[in-house]
Amino acid sequence: MTPLTSFYRWAHRNGVVSRLRLKVSKGMGVGLFFRNADLPDPGNYKNKNKHRKELDQGELLLVPQSLLLSRSRVIQFTCPHLQKTLSIIEHSNVSERLAIILFILSQRLLLEHRAQQHQHHSITIDPAENPCSKHDDNEQTGDFFADYIAVLPDVSTPVTLDPDLVRGYLAGTLLLDSVCAKRSKLEAEFEHLSGNLGAFEDWPCRPTLENFIWADATFWSRVLSFRTQWTDNGTSNGSDDDMHMVPYLDFANHAAYPNIRWEVDSDGLRVWGQESLLQDSKDLSVEREVFLSYGNKPNTELLFLYGFTLQDNPTQFLTLAMPMDEDDSYYMPKAHSLMRWEIPPRITIYLKKSDGPDDLEELCPGLWITRQSRYLLWLYALSEDDGLGAFIEEPESKVCVIQDSAEQDDDEDAHEEADLFDEDVVGRLVLTINGTKVENLEVLESVVPKLDIFPVIKLRILVLVADRIEYYISRIMETGDRVQKAEGVEIVRAVQYDKDNHSARGSPTPDLAEAQPASRLGRNIGDCLVPTILEPDHTQPITSRQLEAEAQVSNLVTMMKNYRAEEMSLLVGMGNVLGEAQTRCLEESDFIQSYLARMQLQE
Hints:
The chain is α+β, with helices and mostly antiparallel strands. The chain is built from 19 helices and 21 strands.
Protein backbone atom coordinates (compact mmCIF):
# COMPACT_ATOMS: atom_id res chain seq x y z
CA MET A 1 0.00 0.00 0.00
CA THR A 2 1.43 3.39 -0.98
CA PRO A 3 1.76 6.18 1.62
CA LEU A 4 -0.84 8.22 -0.29
CA THR A 5 -3.35 5.36 -0.14
CA SER A 6 -2.68 4.87 3.57
CA PHE A 7 -3.17 8.57 4.19
CA TYR A 8 -6.39 8.63 2.19
CA ARG A 9 -7.82 5.75 4.25
CA TRP A 10 -6.63 7.31 7.53
CA ALA A 11 -8.24 10.64 6.66
CA HIS A 12 -11.63 9.14 5.83
CA ARG A 13 -11.48 6.76 8.79
CA ASN A 14 -11.08 9.76 11.05
CA GLY A 15 -13.85 11.94 9.78
CA VAL A 16 -12.74 13.63 6.55
CA VAL A 17 -15.66 13.94 4.15
CA SER A 18 -14.60 14.89 0.66
CA ARG A 19 -15.64 15.32 -2.93
CA LEU A 20 -12.01 16.01 -3.79
CA ARG A 21 -9.53 13.42 -5.02
CA LEU A 22 -5.81 13.31 -4.33
CA LYS A 23 -3.91 13.01 -7.60
CA VAL A 24 -0.52 13.88 -9.00
CA SER A 25 -0.63 17.35 -10.54
CA LYS A 26 1.77 17.81 -13.43
CA GLY A 27 4.82 19.66 -12.19
CA MET A 28 3.19 20.53 -8.86
CA GLY A 29 3.33 17.34 -6.80
CA VAL A 30 0.07 15.98 -5.41
CA GLY A 31 -3.00 18.18 -5.84
CA LEU A 32 -6.74 18.06 -5.21
CA PHE A 33 -9.16 17.44 -8.08
CA PHE A 34 -12.93 17.70 -8.47
CA ARG A 35 -15.60 16.55 -10.86
CA ASN A 36 -19.38 16.52 -10.42
CA ALA A 37 -19.40 12.74 -10.90
CA ASP A 38 -17.82 12.53 -7.42
CA LEU A 39 -21.00 13.58 -5.65
CA PRO A 40 -21.22 11.68 -2.35
CA ASP A 41 -23.81 9.07 -1.58
CA PRO A 42 -25.18 10.04 1.84
CA GLY A 43 -25.72 6.38 2.60
CA ASN A 44 -21.97 5.83 2.55
CA TYR A 45 -21.45 8.21 5.43
CA LYS A 46 -24.36 7.66 7.84
CA ASN A 47 -23.54 6.10 11.20
CA LYS A 48 -20.10 4.98 10.05
CA ASN A 49 -18.17 7.37 12.26
CA LYS A 50 -18.95 9.80 15.03
CA HIS A 51 -17.20 12.56 13.03
CA ARG A 52 -18.96 12.17 9.71
CA LYS A 53 -21.48 14.70 8.41
CA GLU A 54 -23.03 15.10 5.00
CA LEU A 55 -21.68 17.85 2.77
CA ASP A 56 -23.94 20.76 1.92
CA GLN A 57 -24.61 21.95 -1.60
CA GLY A 58 -21.39 23.38 -3.03
CA GLU A 59 -19.33 22.06 -0.13
CA LEU A 60 -16.33 19.99 -1.20
CA LEU A 61 -14.45 19.05 1.95
CA LEU A 62 -14.79 18.78 5.72
CA VAL A 63 -11.68 18.24 7.86
CA PRO A 64 -12.81 17.66 11.47
CA GLN A 65 -11.35 19.46 14.46
CA SER A 66 -9.58 16.27 15.58
CA LEU A 67 -7.30 16.41 12.49
CA LEU A 68 -6.26 20.06 12.78
CA LEU A 69 -2.64 20.22 13.94
CA SER A 70 -1.70 23.17 16.14
CA ARG A 71 0.57 24.13 19.05
CA SER A 72 -2.08 23.26 21.66
CA ARG A 73 -2.55 19.85 20.09
CA VAL A 74 1.20 19.13 20.06
CA ILE A 75 1.60 20.06 23.72
CA GLN A 76 -1.11 17.54 24.65
CA PHE A 77 0.46 14.57 22.84
CA THR A 78 1.65 11.71 25.06
CA CYS A 79 5.01 11.28 23.33
CA PRO A 80 7.75 11.20 26.02
CA HIS A 81 10.81 12.34 24.07
CA LEU A 82 8.89 15.22 22.46
CA GLN A 83 7.41 16.29 25.77
CA LYS A 84 10.87 16.34 27.33
CA THR A 85 12.14 18.55 24.52
CA LEU A 86 9.24 20.96 25.06
CA SER A 87 9.92 21.07 28.79
CA ILE A 88 13.63 21.79 28.20
CA ILE A 89 12.74 24.71 25.98
CA GLU A 90 9.95 25.69 28.42
CA HIS A 91 6.42 25.84 27.08
CA SER A 92 6.27 29.61 27.35
CA ASN A 93 9.15 29.85 24.84
CA VAL A 94 7.66 27.36 22.38
CA SER A 95 6.04 29.31 19.57
CA GLU A 96 3.30 27.90 17.36
CA ARG A 97 5.82 27.36 14.59
CA LEU A 98 8.42 25.65 16.79
CA ALA A 99 5.89 23.32 18.40
CA ILE A 100 4.61 22.09 15.05
CA ILE A 101 7.99 21.69 13.36
CA LEU A 102 9.39 19.76 16.36
CA PHE A 103 6.41 17.43 16.18
CA ILE A 104 6.55 16.72 12.44
CA LEU A 105 10.34 16.40 12.68
CA SER A 106 10.23 13.83 15.50
CA GLN A 107 7.52 11.81 13.78
CA ARG A 108 9.31 11.87 10.42
CA LEU A 109 12.53 10.58 11.98
CA LEU A 110 10.69 7.81 13.82
CA LEU A 111 9.03 6.64 10.62
CA GLU A 112 12.31 6.65 8.70
CA HIS A 113 14.02 4.77 11.53
CA ARG A 114 11.36 2.07 11.51
CA ALA A 115 11.53 1.77 7.74
CA GLN A 116 15.30 1.31 7.87
CA GLN A 117 15.01 -1.36 10.54
CA HIS A 118 12.47 -3.27 8.51
CA GLN A 119 14.52 -2.92 5.34
CA HIS A 120 17.95 -3.81 6.70
CA HIS A 121 17.13 -6.24 9.48
CA SER A 122 13.73 -7.61 8.51
CA ILE A 123 12.57 -7.44 12.11
CA THR A 124 9.22 -6.64 13.57
CA ILE A 125 9.10 -3.51 15.69
CA ASP A 126 7.48 -4.02 19.07
CA PRO A 127 5.15 -1.05 19.61
CA ALA A 128 5.98 -1.12 23.29
CA GLU A 129 9.60 -0.29 22.46
CA ASN A 130 8.67 2.89 20.58
CA PRO A 131 8.06 6.24 22.26
CA CYS A 132 4.79 6.49 20.36
CA SER A 133 3.05 3.30 19.25
CA LYS A 134 2.37 3.15 15.53
CA HIS A 135 -1.20 3.35 14.23
CA ASP A 136 -2.57 4.04 17.70
CA ASP A 137 -6.19 5.16 17.31
CA ASN A 138 -5.89 7.35 20.41
CA GLU A 139 -5.98 10.94 19.17
CA GLN A 140 -3.76 12.03 22.08
CA THR A 141 -0.70 10.12 20.90
CA GLY A 142 1.69 11.72 18.48
CA ASP A 143 1.60 8.63 16.30
CA PHE A 144 -2.04 9.28 15.54
CA PHE A 145 -0.73 11.48 12.69
CA ALA A 146 1.78 8.91 11.40
CA ASP A 147 -0.04 8.33 8.09
CA TYR A 148 -0.15 12.08 7.51
CA ILE A 149 3.52 12.62 8.36
CA ALA A 150 4.51 9.72 6.06
CA VAL A 151 2.95 11.39 3.05
CA LEU A 152 4.53 14.82 3.56
CA PRO A 153 6.83 15.38 0.57
CA ASP A 154 10.46 16.43 0.46
CA VAL A 155 10.30 20.20 0.13
CA SER A 156 12.72 22.06 -2.12
CA THR A 157 13.10 25.80 -1.65
CA PRO A 158 16.20 27.98 -2.02
CA VAL A 159 16.63 27.75 1.77
CA THR A 160 16.80 23.94 1.68
CA LEU A 161 19.45 23.78 -1.06
CA ASP A 162 23.21 23.79 -0.73
CA PRO A 163 24.09 27.46 0.04
CA ASP A 164 26.86 27.52 -2.57
CA LEU A 165 24.44 26.43 -5.26
CA VAL A 166 21.95 29.10 -4.25
CA ARG A 167 24.64 31.80 -4.24
CA GLY A 168 25.46 30.86 -7.80
CA TYR A 169 21.99 30.94 -9.30
CA LEU A 170 20.61 33.85 -7.26
CA ALA A 171 23.81 35.93 -7.40
CA GLY A 172 23.13 39.61 -6.88
CA THR A 173 19.38 39.30 -6.31
CA LEU A 174 17.29 40.62 -3.46
CA LEU A 175 16.06 37.08 -2.89
CA LEU A 176 19.58 35.84 -2.15
CA ASP A 177 19.82 38.25 0.81
CA SER A 178 16.59 36.83 2.25
CA VAL A 179 17.67 33.22 1.69
CA CYS A 180 21.06 33.71 3.35
CA ALA A 181 19.48 35.50 6.31
CA LYS A 182 16.89 32.73 6.74
CA ARG A 183 19.50 29.99 6.45
CA SER A 184 21.72 31.67 9.06
CA LYS A 185 18.77 32.08 11.41
CA LEU A 186 17.83 28.39 11.11
CA GLU A 187 21.43 27.31 11.66
CA ALA A 188 21.64 29.42 14.82
CA GLU A 189 18.28 28.12 16.07
CA PHE A 190 19.27 24.50 15.46
CA GLU A 191 22.63 25.00 17.17
CA HIS A 192 20.88 26.53 20.18
CA LEU A 193 18.40 23.65 20.43
CA SER A 194 20.81 20.80 19.79
CA GLY A 195 23.97 22.23 21.34
CA ASN A 196 23.18 24.76 24.04
CA LEU A 197 19.95 23.22 25.29
CA GLY A 198 20.52 19.59 24.37
CA ALA A 199 16.86 19.43 23.39
CA PHE A 200 17.30 16.30 21.24
CA GLU A 201 19.36 14.18 23.65
CA ASP A 202 16.52 11.72 24.33
CA TRP A 203 15.28 11.39 20.77
CA PRO A 204 15.58 7.86 19.33
CA CYS A 205 16.91 9.50 16.13
CA ARG A 206 18.65 12.83 16.49
CA PRO A 207 17.88 15.34 13.74
CA THR A 208 20.43 16.95 11.48
CA LEU A 209 20.40 20.56 10.34
CA GLU A 210 18.95 19.39 7.02
CA ASN A 211 16.12 17.62 8.87
CA PHE A 212 15.37 20.78 10.83
CA ILE A 213 15.36 22.94 7.70
CA TRP A 214 13.00 20.43 6.02
CA ALA A 215 10.55 20.71 8.94
CA ASP A 216 10.64 24.50 8.81
CA ALA A 217 10.09 24.55 5.04
CA THR A 218 7.25 22.02 5.37
CA PHE A 219 5.57 24.16 8.01
CA TRP A 220 5.67 27.36 5.97
CA SER A 221 4.63 25.61 2.75
CA ARG A 222 1.50 24.05 4.30
CA VAL A 223 0.37 26.10 7.30
CA LEU A 224 -2.87 28.12 7.34
CA SER A 225 -3.61 31.13 9.52
CA PHE A 226 -6.99 30.85 11.24
CA ARG A 227 -6.96 34.32 12.80
CA THR A 228 -8.62 35.96 9.80
CA GLN A 229 -11.42 33.44 10.12
CA TRP A 230 -11.94 34.33 13.78
CA THR A 231 -12.12 37.99 12.84
CA ASP A 232 -14.72 37.29 10.16
CA ASN A 233 -17.04 34.96 12.05
CA GLY A 234 -16.19 35.69 15.68
CA THR A 235 -15.26 32.05 16.38
CA SER A 236 -11.96 30.85 17.77
CA ASN A 237 -13.22 27.51 19.09
CA GLY A 238 -11.86 28.45 22.51
CA SER A 239 -8.26 28.36 21.27
CA ASP A 240 -5.60 31.03 20.89
CA ASP A 241 -3.84 29.05 18.16
CA ASP A 242 -3.53 30.84 14.85
CA MET A 243 -1.25 28.59 12.77
CA HIS A 244 -2.61 25.18 11.77
CA MET A 245 -1.61 22.37 9.47
CA VAL A 246 -4.70 20.90 7.83
CA PRO A 247 -4.30 17.35 6.49
CA TYR A 248 -5.95 16.82 3.11
CA LEU A 249 -6.58 20.49 2.33
CA ASP A 250 -2.86 21.27 2.47
CA PHE A 251 -2.39 19.28 -0.75
CA ALA A 252 -4.24 22.05 -2.63
CA ASN A 253 -1.90 24.04 -4.85
CA HIS A 254 -1.78 27.81 -5.23
CA ALA A 255 -3.22 29.96 -7.99
CA ALA A 256 -3.51 33.70 -8.36
CA TYR A 257 -7.22 33.22 -8.98
CA PRO A 258 -8.45 30.43 -6.64
CA ASN A 259 -11.57 28.39 -7.31
CA ILE A 260 -12.22 27.25 -3.71
CA ARG A 261 -12.57 29.00 -0.35
CA TRP A 262 -12.40 27.71 3.21
CA GLU A 263 -13.80 28.60 6.60
CA VAL A 264 -13.58 27.30 10.16
CA ASP A 265 -16.50 26.44 12.43
CA SER A 266 -17.11 24.33 15.51
CA ASP A 267 -17.01 21.09 13.47
CA GLY A 268 -13.69 21.79 11.78
CA LEU A 269 -12.56 23.29 8.49
CA ARG A 270 -14.91 23.35 5.50
CA VAL A 271 -14.08 23.98 1.85
CA TRP A 272 -16.51 25.36 -0.69
CA GLY A 273 -16.29 25.50 -4.47
CA GLN A 274 -16.43 28.86 -6.18
CA GLU A 275 -19.19 29.26 -8.74
CA SER A 276 -16.62 29.15 -11.55
CA LEU A 277 -15.54 25.64 -10.50
CA LEU A 278 -19.02 24.24 -10.05
CA GLN A 279 -20.34 25.67 -13.30
CA ASP A 280 -17.35 24.55 -15.35
CA SER A 281 -17.60 21.04 -13.94
CA LYS A 282 -21.13 20.21 -15.08
CA ASP A 283 -19.65 17.77 -17.56
CA LEU A 284 -19.29 14.69 -15.35
CA SER A 285 -16.28 13.47 -17.34
CA VAL A 286 -14.28 16.68 -16.77
CA GLU A 287 -11.92 16.67 -13.82
CA ARG A 288 -10.47 19.98 -12.70
CA GLU A 289 -7.79 20.78 -10.17
CA VAL A 290 -8.89 22.99 -7.30
CA PHE A 291 -6.66 25.82 -6.12
CA LEU A 292 -6.26 27.87 -2.99
CA SER A 293 -4.75 31.31 -2.84
CA TYR A 294 -1.76 31.63 -0.53
CA GLY A 295 -2.28 35.39 -0.71
CA ASN A 296 -1.17 38.13 -3.08
CA LYS A 297 2.46 37.07 -3.21
CA PRO A 298 5.03 38.01 -5.84
CA ASN A 299 7.35 35.37 -7.24
CA THR A 300 10.01 36.47 -4.75
CA GLU A 301 7.88 35.23 -1.85
CA LEU A 302 6.54 32.19 -3.69
CA LEU A 303 10.04 30.99 -4.51
CA PHE A 304 11.36 31.79 -1.03
CA LEU A 305 8.56 30.07 0.91
CA TYR A 306 7.26 27.38 -1.43
CA GLY A 307 9.91 26.72 -4.06
CA PHE A 308 7.90 27.67 -7.15
CA THR A 309 7.02 30.70 -9.24
CA LEU A 310 4.00 31.62 -11.36
CA GLN A 311 4.36 32.53 -14.99
CA ASP A 312 2.79 35.96 -15.58
CA ASN A 313 2.20 36.42 -11.86
CA PRO A 314 -0.21 39.40 -11.56
CA THR A 315 1.27 40.36 -8.17
CA GLN A 316 4.53 42.24 -8.53
CA PHE A 317 6.37 44.14 -5.83
CA LEU A 318 9.88 44.27 -4.41
CA THR A 319 11.25 45.03 -0.96
CA LEU A 320 14.49 47.03 -1.04
CA ALA A 321 16.92 47.52 1.81
CA MET A 322 17.38 51.27 2.33
CA PRO A 323 20.35 51.84 4.63
CA MET A 324 20.86 55.41 5.74
CA ASP A 325 23.88 57.39 4.59
CA GLU A 326 26.27 57.28 7.54
CA ASP A 327 27.83 60.54 6.35
CA ASP A 328 24.53 62.30 7.00
CA SER A 329 25.21 64.86 9.76
CA TYR A 330 21.86 63.88 11.32
CA TYR A 331 22.47 60.15 11.04
CA MET A 332 22.12 59.40 14.77
CA PRO A 333 18.95 61.40 15.55
CA LYS A 334 17.29 60.07 12.39
CA ALA A 335 18.28 56.49 13.26
CA HIS A 336 17.06 56.85 16.85
CA SER A 337 13.73 58.27 15.71
CA LEU A 338 13.17 55.44 13.22
CA MET A 339 13.99 52.84 15.86
CA ARG A 340 11.64 54.52 18.34
CA TRP A 341 8.86 54.47 15.74
CA GLU A 342 9.66 50.84 14.78
CA ILE A 343 10.27 51.69 11.12
CA PRO A 344 12.79 49.27 9.54
CA PRO A 345 15.36 50.54 7.00
CA ARG A 346 13.62 49.08 3.96
CA ILE A 347 10.80 49.97 1.59
CA THR A 348 8.40 47.88 -0.46
CA ILE A 349 7.50 49.16 -3.92
CA TYR A 350 4.24 47.97 -5.51
CA LEU A 351 3.27 48.14 -9.16
CA LYS A 352 -0.45 47.94 -8.28
CA LYS A 353 -2.20 49.57 -5.33
CA SER A 354 -4.49 46.55 -4.93
CA ASP A 355 -1.53 44.26 -4.14
CA GLY A 356 -0.60 45.99 -0.90
CA PRO A 357 -2.14 47.02 2.43
CA ASP A 358 -4.77 49.72 2.70
CA ASP A 359 -2.29 52.46 3.60
CA LEU A 360 -0.44 52.55 0.27
CA GLU A 361 0.63 55.96 -0.99
CA GLU A 362 1.65 56.91 -4.52
CA LEU A 363 5.41 57.29 -4.85
CA CYS A 364 4.94 58.42 -8.44
CA PRO A 365 2.49 57.48 -11.21
CA GLY A 366 2.76 53.68 -11.54
CA LEU A 367 4.54 52.95 -8.23
CA TRP A 368 3.18 52.70 -4.69
CA ILE A 369 4.73 52.49 -1.21
CA THR A 370 3.42 52.04 2.34
CA ARG A 371 2.93 54.94 4.70
CA GLN A 372 5.84 53.72 6.82
CA SER A 373 8.08 53.71 3.73
CA ARG A 374 7.02 57.28 3.04
CA TYR A 375 7.98 58.38 6.57
CA LEU A 376 11.36 56.70 6.17
CA LEU A 377 12.02 58.47 2.88
CA TRP A 378 10.92 61.81 4.28
CA LEU A 379 13.54 61.60 7.02
CA TYR A 380 16.21 60.46 4.59
CA ALA A 381 15.48 63.40 2.28
CA LEU A 382 15.39 66.16 4.93
CA SER A 383 18.53 68.17 5.66
CA GLU A 384 19.62 71.02 7.88
CA ASP A 385 18.99 73.49 5.04
CA ASP A 386 15.32 72.46 5.15
CA GLY A 387 14.97 73.39 8.83
CA LEU A 388 15.95 70.02 10.28
CA GLY A 389 17.48 70.12 13.76
CA ALA A 390 18.02 67.90 16.78
CA PHE A 391 18.62 68.11 20.50
CA ILE A 392 19.11 65.80 23.48
CA GLU A 393 16.05 65.64 25.68
CA GLU A 394 17.30 65.25 29.26
CA PRO A 395 15.89 62.29 31.23
CA GLU A 396 14.02 62.77 34.48
CA SER A 397 16.72 60.89 36.41
CA LYS A 398 20.37 60.16 35.72
CA VAL A 399 22.39 57.05 36.46
CA CYS A 400 25.62 57.54 38.37
CA VAL A 401 28.63 55.32 38.92
CA ILE A 402 31.10 55.37 41.78
CA GLN A 403 34.66 56.32 40.88
CA ASP A 404 37.67 54.38 42.10
CA SER A 405 38.41 55.83 45.56
CA ALA A 406 42.10 56.05 44.76
CA GLU A 407 41.31 58.52 42.00
CA GLN A 408 39.03 60.73 44.07
CA ASP A 409 39.80 63.95 45.85
CA ASP A 410 38.48 64.10 49.43
CA ASP A 411 36.29 67.12 48.74
CA GLU A 412 34.82 65.89 45.44
CA ASP A 413 31.50 64.19 44.91
CA ALA A 414 31.98 60.43 44.74
CA HIS A 415 29.79 60.10 41.66
CA GLU A 416 29.91 60.99 38.02
CA GLU A 417 27.41 60.65 35.22
CA ALA A 418 27.53 57.34 33.44
CA ASP A 419 28.26 57.37 29.76
CA LEU A 420 25.40 55.14 28.62
CA PHE A 421 23.41 54.78 25.41
CA ASP A 422 20.12 54.02 27.11
CA GLU A 423 17.70 56.85 26.27
CA ASP A 424 16.01 56.48 29.65
CA VAL A 425 19.17 57.51 31.46
CA VAL A 426 21.20 59.70 29.12
CA GLY A 427 18.35 61.33 27.23
CA ARG A 428 16.70 60.98 23.85
CA LEU A 429 17.92 62.32 20.56
CA VAL A 430 14.91 64.23 19.25
CA LEU A 431 14.47 65.72 15.80
CA THR A 432 12.99 69.14 15.15
CA ILE A 433 11.67 70.70 11.95
CA ASN A 434 11.66 74.47 11.93
CA GLY A 435 11.67 74.39 15.72
CA THR A 436 8.80 71.92 16.07
CA LYS A 437 9.73 68.88 18.15
CA VAL A 438 8.99 65.71 16.14
CA GLU A 439 8.07 63.32 18.92
CA ASN A 440 5.90 60.95 16.89
CA LEU A 441 4.68 60.14 13.40
CA GLU A 442 1.57 62.28 13.80
CA VAL A 443 3.75 65.37 14.18
CA LEU A 444 5.89 64.30 11.20
CA GLU A 445 2.74 63.82 9.12
CA SER A 446 1.42 67.27 10.02
CA VAL A 447 4.68 69.20 9.50
CA VAL A 448 6.49 67.83 6.44
CA PRO A 449 3.80 68.27 3.73
CA LYS A 450 3.39 71.93 4.77
CA LEU A 451 7.03 72.79 4.17
CA ASP A 452 7.68 75.21 1.32
CA ILE A 453 10.48 72.90 0.25
CA PHE A 454 8.13 69.87 0.02
CA PRO A 455 8.16 69.62 -3.83
CA VAL A 456 11.95 69.38 -3.70
CA ILE A 457 11.73 66.72 -0.97
CA LYS A 458 9.51 64.62 -3.25
CA LEU A 459 12.08 64.94 -6.03
CA ARG A 460 14.88 63.95 -3.66
CA ILE A 461 12.89 60.87 -2.68
CA LEU A 462 12.56 59.84 -6.32
CA VAL A 463 16.30 60.23 -6.72
CA LEU A 464 17.02 58.25 -3.52
CA VAL A 465 14.86 55.31 -4.61
CA ALA A 466 16.17 55.41 -8.18
CA ASP A 467 19.74 55.31 -6.91
CA ARG A 468 18.94 52.29 -4.76
CA ILE A 469 17.32 50.47 -7.66
CA GLU A 470 20.34 51.27 -9.82
CA TYR A 471 22.54 49.74 -7.11
CA TYR A 472 20.63 46.45 -7.26
CA ILE A 473 20.67 46.44 -11.07
CA SER A 474 24.44 46.91 -11.03
CA ARG A 475 24.82 44.17 -8.42
CA ILE A 476 23.03 41.63 -10.61
CA MET A 477 25.03 42.65 -13.66
CA GLU A 478 28.34 42.50 -11.81
CA THR A 479 27.64 39.07 -10.38
CA GLY A 480 26.59 37.57 -13.70
CA ASP A 481 29.86 35.66 -13.99
CA ARG A 482 29.19 33.88 -10.70
CA VAL A 483 26.26 32.05 -12.24
CA GLN A 484 28.51 30.72 -14.95
CA LYS A 485 31.12 29.69 -12.38
CA ALA A 486 28.48 27.89 -10.34
CA GLU A 487 27.65 25.80 -13.38
CA GLY A 488 31.29 24.81 -13.78
CA VAL A 489 32.03 23.80 -10.20
CA GLU A 490 31.17 20.40 -8.77
CA ILE A 491 29.16 21.60 -5.78
CA VAL A 492 27.39 18.25 -5.35
CA ARG A 493 28.26 14.82 -6.69
CA ALA A 494 26.47 13.81 -9.86
CA VAL A 495 26.01 10.68 -11.94
CA GLN A 496 25.00 10.09 -15.49
CA TYR A 497 21.98 7.92 -15.86
CA ASP A 498 19.07 7.36 -18.20
CA LYS A 499 15.82 7.96 -16.34
CA ASP A 500 13.80 6.10 -18.99
CA ASN A 501 15.66 2.88 -18.18
CA HIS A 502 14.51 2.89 -14.55
CA SER A 503 11.71 0.54 -13.69
CA ALA A 504 8.72 1.66 -11.63
CA ARG A 505 10.55 0.48 -8.50
CA GLY A 506 13.56 2.62 -9.26
CA SER A 507 15.96 -0.15 -10.30
CA PRO A 508 19.35 1.12 -11.40
CA THR A 509 20.29 1.22 -15.02
CA PRO A 510 22.64 -1.55 -16.22
CA ASP A 511 25.58 0.84 -16.45
CA LEU A 512 24.96 2.67 -13.17
CA ALA A 513 27.72 0.78 -11.37
CA GLU A 514 30.20 2.15 -13.89
CA ALA A 515 28.98 5.74 -13.52
CA GLN A 516 31.47 8.30 -12.30
CA PRO A 517 30.88 11.70 -10.69
CA ALA A 518 30.17 14.23 -13.41
CA SER A 519 32.66 17.00 -13.95
CA ARG A 520 29.86 19.56 -13.91
CA LEU A 521 26.81 20.02 -11.75
CA GLY A 522 24.53 17.67 -13.58
CA ARG A 523 22.20 17.18 -16.47
CA ASN A 524 21.38 19.76 -19.11
CA ILE A 525 17.79 21.00 -19.15
CA GLY A 526 17.36 23.65 -21.80
CA ASP A 527 20.12 26.19 -21.28
CA CYS A 528 20.36 25.55 -17.54
CA LEU A 529 22.75 23.03 -16.06
CA VAL A 530 21.16 21.61 -12.94
CA PRO A 531 22.48 19.48 -10.09
CA THR A 532 21.63 15.89 -9.33
CA ILE A 533 21.46 14.71 -5.74
CA LEU A 534 21.96 11.10 -6.77
CA GLU A 535 25.34 9.60 -5.96
CA PRO A 536 26.81 6.40 -7.38
CA ASP A 537 26.06 3.50 -5.07
CA HIS A 538 26.95 -0.02 -6.13
CA THR A 539 24.70 -1.70 -3.57
CA GLN A 540 21.55 0.38 -3.26
CA PRO A 541 19.15 1.03 -6.15
CA ILE A 542 17.93 4.53 -6.88
CA THR A 543 14.47 4.84 -5.41
CA SER A 544 11.46 6.63 -6.86
CA ARG A 545 11.65 9.05 -3.94
CA GLN A 546 15.19 9.98 -4.92
CA LEU A 547 14.11 10.52 -8.50
CA GLU A 548 11.26 12.74 -7.37
CA ALA A 549 13.59 14.73 -5.12
CA GLU A 550 16.07 15.22 -7.94
CA ALA A 551 13.31 16.38 -10.27
CA GLN A 552 12.28 18.92 -7.64
CA VAL A 553 15.81 20.27 -7.33
CA SER A 554 16.19 20.43 -11.12
CA ASN A 555 12.96 22.39 -11.46
CA LEU A 556 13.94 24.67 -8.58
CA VAL A 557 17.31 25.53 -10.09
CA THR A 558 15.65 26.37 -13.39
CA MET A 559 13.16 28.61 -11.58
CA MET A 560 15.95 30.35 -9.66
CA LYS A 561 17.76 31.16 -12.87
CA ASN A 562 14.55 32.42 -14.47
CA TYR A 563 13.70 34.40 -11.36
CA ARG A 564 17.04 36.19 -11.51
CA ALA A 565 16.19 37.46 -14.98
CA GLU A 566 12.68 38.38 -13.82
CA GLU A 567 13.97 40.43 -10.90
CA MET A 568 16.37 42.24 -13.19
CA SER A 569 13.52 43.07 -15.56
CA LEU A 570 11.34 44.29 -12.69
CA LEU A 571 14.10 46.53 -11.33
CA VAL A 572 14.79 48.01 -14.76
CA GLY A 573 11.07 48.70 -15.24
CA MET A 574 10.84 50.46 -11.86
CA GLY A 575 13.97 52.43 -12.63
CA ASN A 576 12.47 53.64 -15.92
CA VAL A 577 9.26 54.73 -14.19
CA LEU A 578 11.24 56.65 -11.58
CA GLY A 579 13.38 58.28 -14.28
CA GLU A 580 10.28 59.49 -16.11
CA ALA A 581 8.81 60.77 -12.83
CA GLN A 582 11.98 62.79 -12.11
CA THR A 583 11.84 64.33 -15.57
CA ARG A 584 8.19 65.35 -15.08
CA CYS A 585 9.02 66.90 -11.70
CA LEU A 586 11.79 68.98 -13.21
CA GLU A 587 9.75 70.05 -16.23
CA GLU A 588 6.41 70.73 -14.55
CA SER A 589 7.43 72.38 -11.26
CA ASP A 590 8.41 76.05 -11.45
CA PHE A 591 9.28 75.91 -7.76
CA ILE A 592 11.81 73.11 -8.25
CA GLN A 593 13.38 74.88 -11.20
CA SER A 594 13.77 78.13 -9.28
CA TYR A 595 15.06 76.26 -6.24
CA LEU A 596 17.73 74.48 -8.27
CA ALA A 597 18.68 77.74 -9.92
CA ARG A 598 19.19 79.34 -6.49
CA MET A 599 21.31 76.40 -5.38
CA GLN A 600 23.53 76.79 -8.44
CA LEU A 601 24.01 80.50 -7.76
CA GLN A 602 24.95 79.83 -4.13
CA GLU A 603 27.55 77.30 -5.24
